Input
Amino acid sequence: MVRKAIVDDAEQLRILNNEFNGGGETTIENIKKSLMKNQQEVVIVDDENGVLTGFVCVQLKRSFCYNEYMPEITEVYVRSGYRKQGIASKMLVFAEKYCIENYPLHQYELLTGEENPIAQSLYEKLGYTKDTEIHLSKLINREE
Output
């Protein structure tokens, strides 16, 4: 069953995040705090009889320049044993519907790896298209 994440999901979300992003990126306490207080993120999970199989994170970006939110899907992960069952699609559709019902918006954004054709195919099947924006990033060296 796809649903919005709750605080009781924190331990399983930490395990899934460690599988996805590598260990040590966050703590259970940080996940709990984020699920309780972070109003700029929506976390969606797939729950198979109490076992979380994946998650989707949506960042709710908003600027004074616009009347609407610009939600960005920032994370999509399905545990390897549950892939190719439509779980990612179900979570993404649920996330989109949840955001449409709760926030003023007219489009979604997402970034994915240039060398990730499986994810690109999924997103294109759900109606996402490449645009003309160029994504830039800058690493911060805190030792300088």
About this structure: The longest strand covers residues 51-61. The domain at 2-125 is CATH 3.40.630.30 (Aminopeptidase).
